[in-house]
Every structure is written in C-alpha cells, then in structure tokens.
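Weekly structure sync - notes
Attendees: PM, LS, DV (DV joined late)
Agenda: review two folding runs queued last week.

Item 1: First target. Sequence and structure tokens pasted below for the record.
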Amino acid sequence: MNFERISERTVYMALSESIFRVEEVQRWMSYLESLNQENVIEIIPSFSGVAIEFSRFVSNDVIDRILIGYRDYNIESKVAVSSERWEIEVLYTGEDLEELAKSKSLSVQELIQIHSSVEYTVGMIGFTPGFPYLIGLPEELHTPRRAVPRRVVKKGAVAIGGVQAGIYPQDSPGGWHILGYSDFPLFNKDMQPPTPLKVGDKVKFIPS
C-alpha cells in the first residue's frame, strides 16, 4: 500500500495493483470516516484505491500516520462494512440490443435473461456525476465498446462495455452498448448525498 499526491491537498491511497477490490475499498472508506478528520473535505473511492481531499496541505507525516493506523486497525471486527440492495426496472428497448444479441448468437430474450439474472456490485461512481460502474457482468456478455462512440447517449440508458455494466445518469457522449432504459434517479445535486448508490451496493435489474 502506498500513496501518491495528486495535488497539494489531494492524496490517492493505492490499495492494490489489481482492480475490483471493492470490499477493501469499503473498509478503507469506513476507516477514514471513523477518524473524523476535520480537514477532510471528501473521500472518493475508485476500483482499487481511495482519494482524500483535504481542506489544506497535509504533510507526509500525517499521511503516514493514517496508513499506519489502517495497518494496525482490526478492520474486520471494528469497522462495519455495509451495503444496500437496489432493484432497478429496465425497459429493454435499447438501440444495440438486437445487434448485440446477434453478435453473441443469442436471441434478444436470452440476452435480456442473462443480463438481468445476476446481482451486480457498484465498483465505482464516476465518468459523469452518478454514473455507476457495475461489476459482475456475465462472461457471455463481455464485449468491446462501440468502435464509434455516440455523441449523445440519453439519460437512463442501461448499457454494457468491456466487462462492466452501467447506467447513464444524464445525456452525455458514450461508447457502451445500450440495452434498455430506466427512470431510476441516479443523481440530484440538491440531495445529500447527491447519488443514492455507493461503492459496494448491490444492483439487480428487473425487466419491465
């Protein structure tokens, strides 16, 4: 485990060289929140690490103490890691549904069944505000992103790209394959927190 300075006030704690270390990131989040550091503005999780934004410059000694505290802390027994389970309805009418099914030698209904049969884990929130990167896409549906991204992907698009699934919270450019649409609210700047999903949460898609 090591850290990297992103700016004078932001430090990235790299937990592992491999990605999808969701449970370890959750434990780190819980540990950092338990410290109640007054000068911490925000804690931002990623697939394999945590970025910490401070209100002012912090010395390497302070960061080292945080790292030592994490190593010495009995994470399993003293920090509770919690997650919520969400059921998200999807209308499977996406622009890429038929073409993708054909490329996988599946019927449309078979593709829908595979996509909606598993429980996904929120690995990270990013790209655009509220966009959930979902881990757990069945191997049968792993597929490269579109060769030519769309200039506009509509809000609510449920899509897959590479080995992940996701949902577009706003109209935005995007290169993932669109399977359907959902009206599940993913981001509201006037709410706190602004997105209901968090790293470690479980998501189940329900065909509507």
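Item 2: Second target, run right after the first with the same settings.
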Amino acid sequence: MGPDGPARSVRDEDWYGRDLSGEVLEGVELVDVDLTEARATGATFSGCTFRGVRFNASAWTECAFTGCRFQRCVLFDAAFERCKLVGSTFDDCRFDLVRVERGDWSFVTLRRADLGGVRIEGARLREADLTEVRARDAVLVGLDLSGAELGHPDLRGADLRGSDLTALDPRAALLDGAAVDPDQAAVLVENLGLVVVPA
C-alpha cells in the first residue's frame, strides 16, 4: 500500500465460485465484491482492504491474509483451514457458521465481534484483541490464547476445552454453561485469586 492508499481498487465484481488458488494481491482494496463459494489454496493477500465483501460458503486452505482489514463483510459458512491472518482487523463483520481449523490468527483484532455459534479449532490467537467478543455457544477448542485481550467476553455455552485461558478474568466474563476441562478449571480458580490445595 502506497502513501496515497491502495495501489488498486476492485469494485462491484462478481467473483462467484472463482478459484483464486495461488493468487497474490498486495495493497488492493476490494469493495462490494461477491466471493460466494470462491475457493483458494495458497493464495496471499497482504495489506488488502475488504469492504462489503461477501465470503459466503467460500473455502480457504493454507491462504494468507496478513495485515488486512475487513469492514462490513459477510462470512456466512466460510471455512479457513491452516490459514494465516496475522495482524488483520475485522470491523462490523458477520461470522455466522464460520469454521476455522488450525492456522495462525495472532494479533488479529476481533473487538466486539459476534462469534456466536462459530467453530474455531486448534488455531493460534496469540495477543489477539477479543475484547467484548460475543461467542455464545461457540466451539473454541484447543486455542492458543496466550497474551490475548479477553476483557468482558460473552462465552456462555461455549466449548472452551483445551484452550489457554490464563489471560481470562472470570470475574469480568459471562461463562454460564461454558465447557472447560479440569486443568482449565484450576486456572480459572487461580485467576479468581484462590489457592488450589491438593487433597
């Protein structure tokens, strides 16, 4: 991206069902582009802006979206497998039925995102901003959340098993019905300031 903004702008394009495997886009602005049912393996997007883009039912495998910005995007039923989204920001996006399998989402900003019902497994979200995230009934298992911002999240009914909860203050979170494993329960008790004494 140059000093005068994105190097190129793509607007109102219909990329329905397109195969974007191996594509490399840098500093490109995509506005109101339809990526419904698009497929890609090994595509790279660096410093791109996605505004009003529809990712419905799209599938991304081993793709990179680094330092990208997503604004008012719809990601209904989108799937990300082993993708890298380091440093990307999501603002006012819809995530209904999104599935994430592994991958590196470190330093991602998902502040106030509605992640209710999403499924994220085995991904790295180190130092991600998840402040006030709404993840009711979400599956968030095996996640590396070390150093993540987890202020005032709604995790009611979420499956959190195997995720790193050391950064979570249970006094500032909604956790009714959330599923955790015994090790996580001990971490949450310690985060309350209690001392776990062996029987």
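Discussion on item 2: Residues 41 and 146 are 28 Å apart (CA to CA).
Action: LS to circulate a short write-up before next sync.
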